[in-house]
Amino acid sequence: MYEDILYDVQDPVATITLNLNALRDRTSRELMQALAEAEQDPRVVGIVLTGAGRGFCGGLDMQALATIQEAGEIASYRESDDVPQAEPGAPLAEGYGYGYIMSLRKPVVVAVNGACAGLGFSLAMFCDLRFASESAIFTTQFAQRGLVAEHGMGWVLSRPIGPSRALDVLCSGRRLSANEALELGLTNRVVAPEDLLGEAQGYIEQLASTASPKALMQMKSQVYRYLNQPLGTAMADTGQLQDISVKWPDLQEGIASFVERRPPQFSRLSKAEPQWGRDE
User: What is the pTM for the complete model shown?
Assistant: First the structure.
């Protein structure tokens, strides 16, 4: 089905691999389709995104960038390549904004295995967790190409590290090592290159064996929805969600597994499983 990415599901993990070092329009559309496919697959508890070879993603394909510059509009980036369509009912976002990842019901872990630049850096930042190889390098390079902070980076980068540090990263375009990215709060952990993919996949496997997928879904929704809400609003919403959660079978199973000293057996998300507080 795909040309620019590799897609593989090994219960409970869906692994998406960027098969090109630079992103073109087809790559982004295939990625969005694969994410929508994993979102609808009951086997999938979480998603791992990584790159092929020694690099994660060097950013937008330079030929595509030249086309945009010549035409004077971003729309010129769109290609006519036929890309598989999402399954009917899949929550595929309009456009190619990577903010779509934040709306998925399932956690997305990016395994940054090498160079992560420009649009690739933006893609990594919109994932829920970031694991980095010791050899990973992060850089924006927007200012150095005469561009603005593209693809939502002005918003997403300042959240974990604050406006001053975000401006430093954006304006200087300097190369951040994996360890500096960890110190800044851009990544969650740094591991040896040979252990990176296994570490990311193992994280999802651990979640699948210990945590309620429904709880994971709602916690992700809460964290992102509360980013721009005052505390009082968030607390009121949380109270309503608590009233819903105590009636769910997951709480009964969580208590029973604790009392019986056994791993919990939580149900997986169905295709139509709503996020609490949105459809209830």
Answer: 0.88
